[in-house]
Each structure stands twice: as structure tokens, then as C-alpha cells.
Amino acid sequence: MKRIHFLPAVFALAGISNAQVVLDKPLVLSGTDPSDRRIDGLAPASELDNLVTVGAAQDGSLVTALAGGAANAVALTLQPATLQYSNGLRVRWTPLAQNTGPVTVQVDGLAAVPLRDPSGLEVGLGALRAGVPVEAQFADSVFIFLGSAPSGCPEGFVQVNGQFCMMQAEGPVVNWFDAAAYCSERGASLCTWDEYLFTCQTAQGQLTDLFDNWEWIDDTSDHTHSADQIGRWSCKSMFNISASLTDLGATRCCYRLR
Questions:
Q1: Looking at the structure, do residues 185 and 104 belong to the same domain, yes or no?
Q2: Last residue of a domain, one of 89, 118, 146
Q3: How far from chain centre, in Å, is Cα 40?
Q4: For residue 58, what pLDDT is reported?
């Protein structure tokens, strides 16, 4: 193996502080003193084929991206920029806002791809929260969210007890199917009768828009082949209505704490 020996004294004579050397052979550092077998003063990598310093490896700056875009459509910028998605690519960023539904991630202007949890499902409401750093890894056309979602209630929800949270304000007035989808897209579900009644009686002061409309719950009355609504006049008000596309009610979701 051809060896190239650098003589520090030669460089020092001319007062050289920086230079560029192109080698077509392996570089072997063979000084007897360990302090002589190193390369100091490397600038941060600016190209994909640059050397990585110990500092960059420790602080994760090469995989930490500047976040932009929207809450559910994240746009990331790496330095240096990546040229393509490849299995194993990891990115870290600090979200600017909480997601309100399924999320896509776009890196350096490449195609936007879905962000999924480790089970392959779309991440739920509150998986990304403003100011809380997250990490994801690209695998087979999607980014996999690493780690677990932050604990506690998502923004806009009131924690009722250690088991669930309820949406503070009344949601859209829609049919039962759209109401169920609205909650599902946020990683939540329509509240059950028990959840609604308990929260209405114990945390009524923390909720808004109560008793303004009939609200859908995740319940049916099989004997009348209808869906159930609740809360028009009081906590215990209950109404049965056909679950058709034209029958409407307000939406209020419950979020189960893991």
C-alpha cells in the first residue's frame, strides 16, 4: 500500500493554515504519537461526500432538519441536502404546530410521503406537537415515526381522568358517518354514553358549546335501528335518530390516553 507522509514542519514554514489535497490512494496516518495521527480543523460538511467531524456526529446536525410547511404537510430542509429517499434515511425536526390529522413529510423538495406509526397506521392527532422534537426513518416509501406520541391530551382537549380526554369545543354539525370520520382522522373517536355523561357532570365548566345542539355519541339503539344523540338540553338529554346521510348532529370527540 502506498503511503503518503505529511511533514507538519514543512507546512508551518510557510505559515499555511488551510489547504486542499486530492489523493488517489488510501491515506494512512502512522505517526508514533497518537496526537500526530489525526486531522484537525475540518469545517462542517457541506456536500454529501464530505468527511464528518466528531462534533457533527454527536450533535446530529446532519440529520436535523429545518421545519417548515404546514401542521399536516411538513416540509424539511437538511444541510447538506439529500438527493433521494433511501431506506434508513433518518430525519429529526421540531414541529411548528400540532398535527390535526394524517401527516406527510417532504425532504429537500422531494416527493411528500406519509408519516406512519411503527404499526403502519397513520399517526394520530397530537403525534406531532409544537416545540417537541421528533425523529422518523424512511422505509419502503413511507417515513416511520420513531418513539411514542407525547403523553397527555392533544391541544383542544380537556383531560377528564387518567383514561381519556374530551374535545373542549363542539365540532362540526354533520351526519353520523362524517362525525365518526372527523374524530378518527384526529386519532380519537366519538364519545360513548358513559364518557359524555361522566364528563358533562364532572367537568362541565371546562367545556364550551354544551346544550347548543344534539351531539352524536358512539352508540346505537338497536330496537329502533337508529343512532343516538345526547346533550341538547342537559347532560342526560338523549335522542334517537336515523343514521342517514341527511340527519345531522354536532361532533365532540374523545381521545383515549395510552
A1: no
A2: 146
A3: 37
A4: 55
Are 209 and 171 spatial neighbours (Cβ–Cβ below 8 Å)? no
Quick check: 160 and 199 in contact, CB under 8 A?
A: yes
Q: Are residues 117 and 195 in the same domain?
A: no
- With respect to residue 107, please indicate whether it lies within any of the assigned structural domains: yes
Is 20 part of a structural domain of the chain?
no
CATH number of the domain residue 211 falls in: 3.10.100.10
- Computed from CA positions of residues 233, 236, 242, 246, in that sequence, does the dihedral angle turn out positive or negative? positive
- Closest by CA to 90, choosing from 42, 129, 143, is 143
List, for residues 183-193, the tens digit of each pLDDT value. Answer: 988 878 999 99
Residues 6+ apart with CB under 8 A from 167: 156, 157, 158, 188, 252, 253, 254, 255
What 8-state DSSP symbol labels residue 34?
G
Q: Does residue 170 fall inside a structural domain? A: yes
Average pLDDT, the chain: 83
Q: CA-CA distance, 66 to 192, in Å (whole number)?
A: 41
Q: Is residue 14 part of a domain?
A: no
Residue 199, class by beta-carbon neighbours within 10 Å (0-12 exposed, 13-18 middle, 19+ buried)?
buried
% of the chain beyond a pLDDT of 70:
79
Per-residue pLDDT tens over the stretch 118-172: 888 888 777 888 888 999 999 999 999 997 666 678 888 999 998 999 999 999 9
Residues 126 and 149: beta-carbon distance below 8 Å: yes
4 three-state secondary structure = coil
Write out the residue range of the structural domain in which residue 224 sits.
157-256
Distance CA 29, CA 27 (A): 7
Q: Which of 146, 169, 204 is the last residue of a domain?
A: 146
- Pair 223, 245 in one domain: yes
Average pLDDT for 98-104:
88
